[in-house]
């Protein structure tokens, strides 16, 4: 009897820790972050950020809804400028289009491109309560590619763009079952794999990643029905990519180390171009050097759409 009680208590404790890990890393049902973090690294850009979000809000957005491959509702903001070039811009982990593309969306609009800016699953009005670190989100990108072809014509040229988790998502989507209408990828501060970033964040929290990660993995499996495989993520998917990829990453990124972008580049050096921004923190390449950022994106878009 005592042995049964001990086994039951250990099992209950195990499930509680797994559930706590799931809640901390994967569960989300909310609006996402609309403002910059309050740390000193970001606060110096507050005034500029407010101007950029003002420009974002001036775009004449329409709303769009599609169904994901697992039948959840996916929502997006859409700008139709009658162009045959469309950018699909995927925001980051527990973030928002307004924050992550306050520079990128007005830049794309100024280039005359159509825009699809989705709310990632488990964010805002999109369905699900589980963030999957780019695994299921990569399939969502393919759904938005199909929407772009229906909305803007089968001859549309599509550029996939992303920031942070959104960047890892679009690289993964480009490497797995790529659509012929997708011509290039712009990825800002992506992580190399779900496992890699989860273990890194565990370390940031003062937890031994080798012990903490298995609980996160099991929590995702039990409560999110998500099996994270070793080969999941951008670093592995990019090996199969036929598309040119522009990576941008700040060398003072304290959330996703710039080394993760270097790993992605090394996995397919013929297709991946890495541009490092000195002094830039996570997602701050645009704000730290807007002229260089805009030039790189403009040149890349022209190159991939002229073929």
Q: What's the mean pLDDT score?
A: 95
Q: Looking across the biggest beta sheet, what order are the strands in? A: 1-2-4-3-5-6-7-8
Identify the overall geometry. Answer: globular
Low-confidence stretches: none
Helix content: 40-55%
Report the major sheet. 8 strands, mixed
Question: Notable features of this structure?
Answer:
single chain, 307 residues, alpha/beta, 46% helix, globular
Please characterize this protein's 3D structure.
- With 307 residues, the protein is an alpha/beta fold.
- Helix content is 46%, strand content 17%.
- It has 13 helices and eight strands.
- It has an eight-stranded mixed beta sheet, with helices on both faces.
- Helix 6 packs across helix 7.
- The radius of gyration is 19 Å and the shape is globular.
- The chain starts with a helix and ends with a helix.
């Amino acid at each position: 009897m005592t042995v049964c009680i001990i086994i039951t208590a250990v099992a209950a404790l195990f499930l509680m820790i797994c559930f706590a890990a799931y809640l901390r890393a994967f569960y989300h049902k909310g609006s996402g972050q609309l403002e910059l973090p309050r740390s000193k690294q970001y606060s110096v850009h507050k005034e500029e950020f407010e101007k950029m979000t003002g420009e974002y809000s001036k775009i004449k957005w329409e709303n769009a809804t599609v169904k994901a491959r697992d039948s959840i509702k996916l929502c997006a903001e859409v700008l139709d400028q009658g162009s045959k070039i469309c950018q699909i811009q995927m925001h980051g982990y527990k973030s928002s289009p307004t924050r992550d593309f306050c520079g990128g969306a007005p830049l794309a609009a100024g280039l005359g491109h159509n825009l699809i800016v989705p709310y990632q699953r488990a964010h805002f009005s999109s369905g699900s309560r589980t963030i999957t670190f780019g695994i299921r989100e990569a399939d969502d990108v393919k759904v938005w590619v199909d929407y772009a072809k229906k909305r803007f014509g089968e001859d549309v040229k599509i550029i996939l763009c992303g920031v942070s988790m959104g960047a890892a998502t679009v690289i993964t989507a480009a490497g797995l079952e790529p659509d012929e209408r997708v011509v290039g990828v712009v990825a800002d501060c992506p992580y190399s794999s779900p496992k890699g970033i989860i273990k890194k964040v565990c370390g940031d929290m003062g937890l031994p990643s080798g012990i903490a990660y298995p609980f996160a993995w099991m929590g995702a499996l039990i409560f999110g029905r998500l099996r994270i495989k070793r080969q999941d993520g951008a670093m592995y998917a990019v090996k199969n990519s036929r598309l040119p990829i522009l990576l941008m990453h700040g060398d003072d990124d304290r959330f996703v180390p710039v080394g993760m972008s270097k790993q992605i580049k090394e996995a397919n050096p013929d297709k991946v171009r890495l541009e490092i921004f000195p002094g830039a923190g996570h997602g701050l390449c645009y704000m730290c050097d807007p002229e260089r950022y805009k030039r790189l994106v403009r040149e890349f878009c022209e190159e991939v759409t002229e073929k």
